[in-house]
Amino acid sequence: MWLTFPWLVADENGGCMGIYEPIAQLGKATIINVESVKLEKFVSDNVDLTTNPNTGGGLRMYPDRKLPGESTTDALNRKRIKVKAKLSFYVANTKIYFRNFDIDDPSANMAPIDDDAGINIDNPDNRGDVAGSKAGELNSPASPAPQCIVVSGLLECPTDVSGIALADFTVTMNPGDNFVIAASTNKDYLLGLAQAGTDLKNPYSVTVPVPPNQATNASLGLASRSEMLTVWRKVHLEVDTMGNVPTTNNSTGTITAVGSATDPCTPPVPPAPVTPCWTNFTVYALSVTTMDVNKFDNGRIKIGSKSFQVWFNNASQVAIKGIANGANTNGTIGKSYVLYDDDDYNSDDVDKDGDSGEAFVQLPESFRHLSPDDGNWPDGRPRNVYSSAYVTPNFTWAQSISGYNQTLPFSLNVAATSVPAGLNANRNSATDEKADFWVGYFIVAYQGSEASDGDGESGAVSGTGPPVAATDTCDCLLAGTCVGRSCTTVRPGVEGTFIFQEVMQDVTRTLFYYLGLTTYNKGTTAPHELGHQFGLTGDNRDPTTNLTTRTPATYNIMDYPVRATQTDDYTLHPEHINVIRSRVNSPGH
């Protein structure tokens, strides 16, 4: 009985004996096939291929431009890798065949990210394409002179004296797209391989071992495959900051009248009363009659050399707890006063002074969850909220550009009407963003408009930007019908946002403190606002101002939790992961 093995064999000295068929000869022959398929960066200054930290493992690749002004050739080289197939023996001029696969997305098995129902698990699921191919594109290396040819849809390349054949591979640009490249000396065997989830199997359902568990590949005559390669994208964040707080963050005038009041503990909103409940107050009428109601709650009024904590204020009066200076308070009429807000953006004030004259800097917690690092913080919360969408924030490029500005003119309150102009006037990276160089923009500011700065009788907005477009077929929240990966139009998003560090502090210190809640984390604001730049919505539309009864949040970090029953969410909703992974253009475009 004779069996045929259509593979290369070598003699005992490693010399090539060509295609050898009779099994009787195998006693003095060794099967030669592809021992390994390795992926390497294309040029030396490309970002290194690193371990993919998300489900499925394998390798991570950033195909972005390193600099926005790079040449077209350099930009193309960032999207490429070298594929190196090695024979089990050093044999030159042996034909090795390469084939690329779009394998299943291991991060999800349900719509909208990746619907694996039925046969869908084995269907192409990458969102991007290269020349129409969702599996990327294999090409012959340009140097030395091209030696590879296309045969039956496979790339055929010869080995060198070391038994190595090289191919070039170009990836798509959508974050989360993933690939595997297989190689064999047997063209027909390679054509018979099929994707099965993240595996490759032959017609007999034998799985091609995944590196590094492939030591037996050559001896069995099977194809070899690469590790899974996954596309990640960088978003370069330009973060400008306002300059120092001026020494004028206070209100001055004279005392015009002094009286007292009894309050049966009807709480101003905000804040709710603390214990014990004060019922007797000294009330000062002031020469300034246009104050924002409740703006100076928990602040300080200084009259002469004495200071008192402000319990609450209206447009022309302030009240302090108890009876000041005994029963005779008429001696303060006509005296000058200085009234300080409780503003303390970095929580370092002993006596409230409205941060007067303090340096204004980015607080570490403001961008704590937009870290370029993988994994979680010790508290279990993610360093990078956007890792689930295969996006990594980067700050170093923006810090090197000439327009990086940490001393923008200080504004105590940024009016809502001035937000677009303020962003456009200072966003120096506007001409740098491209489909292969993503840029986001922040201005770290003190407070928003007086109507939303957390100081008065109205609400607290910790970040804002221009409004997000109203429709998007990729976002089920707005479109009404989920179209999943079939969506073709992604909402542009907004081109930048403000975050307000003092309001973030007010929300923590006042609104939620008096509710007995300590779950609010200032680090959720920047990731939330970056989501709007990516075109994400989800903000709780419930107009109810009561923080304990409004509709529960359902859109994760892009929503506002009900504090009585929910804590902050540090994850992206699957709908929003789908939107980001469907994006090619830079945020805001």
SS-based structural class? alpha+beta
Give the overall pLDDT as a whole number: 83
Spans of at least 5 consecutive residues whose pLDDT stays below 50 are: 1-28, 267-275
The global form is: elongated
Number of helices: 9
What integer value in Å does the Rg equal? 32 Å
Largest sheet: 8 strands, mixed
First-last Cα distance = 68 Å
The proportion of residues in beta strands is: 15-25%
Tell me the number of strands: 28
Helix share, percent? 10-25%
Describe this structure in words.
There is one protein chain. A hairpin with a 3-residue loop joins strand 22 (306-313) and strand 23. Strands 5, 6, 8, 10, 11, 13, 16 and 17 form an 8-stranded mixed beta sheet that branches. Strands 19-20-23-22-21-24 form a 6-stranded antiparallel beta barrel. It is an alpha+beta fold. The protein has helices at 72-78, 187-191, 217-220, 396-400, 419-426, 476-479, 501-511, 525-533, 574-581, and strands at residues 8-10, 16-19, 30-32, 34-41, 50-51, 59-61, 80-87, 95-101, 137-139, 149-151, 154-158, 164-170, 178-184, 194-196, 199-201, 224-225, 229-231, 233-241, 251-262, 280-286, 300-303, 306-313, 317-321, 336-340, 391-394, 438-445, 463-464, 497-500. The protein is built from 9 helices and 28 strands. It is elongated and about 105 Å long. Helix content is 10%, strand content 24%.
Quick overview of this protein structure:
The chain has 589 residues and is of the alpha+beta class.
